[in-house]
Amino acid sequence: MKLDFHLHRLFVTLILLASSLDLPAAGKNVIPVAGYVVELSGSVSARSRNGVVHLDVMTQIPAGTTVTVLKQAQLSVFLPAVAESVTLSGPGIYVIEEKVVRANGAAPGIERRALSTNFSGLRFKSEALAQTSLIMRGGATELELLEPVGMTTQMRDTRFVWHSASRAEVYEFTLADQDGATIHRTKTNGEELTLPPEIALHAGDSYVWSVRVDTGQPAANLRVARFNVVMPDEKARLEAVQPARGSPRGDWLIYAVWLDESGYSDWARRTFTRCCSEVTLAPEH
User: Fold this and answer.
1) Same structural domain for residues 242 and 144?
2) Domain ranges, residue 207
3) Would you tell me which of 158, 209, 221, 225 could form a disulfide with 154, CB atoms 3.0–4.6 Å apart?
4) Distance CA 19, CA 284 (A)
């Protein structure tokens, strides 16, 4: 009886383990991911060996997928195996493999651009970035936190800046550590604040800061931002991989995913949000 009980527990454990694995659906072949959509405009359709691929930004493209790009349409795909961004223009039919994209017959051409080798093998696991961006973008806000957002190298005399569309008489500022403990709280009538000299931030730590318009109203007038404190050499390493001025938005998307996978999720969210905007992006200073 005791043995049967242990065998039953083992059987249940194996079932739970199998259910947690990302196994393919019955009757479908496992096809490696060749790339990810980073930009899409116009009418583009795709079909893999397992059926229709519904295209959107950050969609996985299985190896061997045939893509039909109609006239005046474009599709940009990131190929992690070779760290390249490949832009396909219409009208044309293309086949996307892990390391190469081939034109199937006559086509306007394939534009390949080599990216940083840091992006080699990068996998898009950051679907939450898109959701976060939609939440953060949600239209113009009454109160916007400007800096620091994402990361800073300032460990002393750290400066915080925000902007209110309608100037308030009093703002309530709060700074907390990564565990939620309040470090500094004060009220001010300006739109910037420098921490007192006795308060020092620590490299490698994350912080949360908030500003509330002190009008007696609840959270509708509250904005919250996060940032990491990094050493100058680490900031330089991250910025060295940053896309150049005027780079396509797809390059910024790849960079945001890389930041997220590197553990800089707050800076990644800010970069992703900015790459979704219509303005031309330039590296931050």
Assistant:
1) yes
2) 128-285
3) 158
4) 44
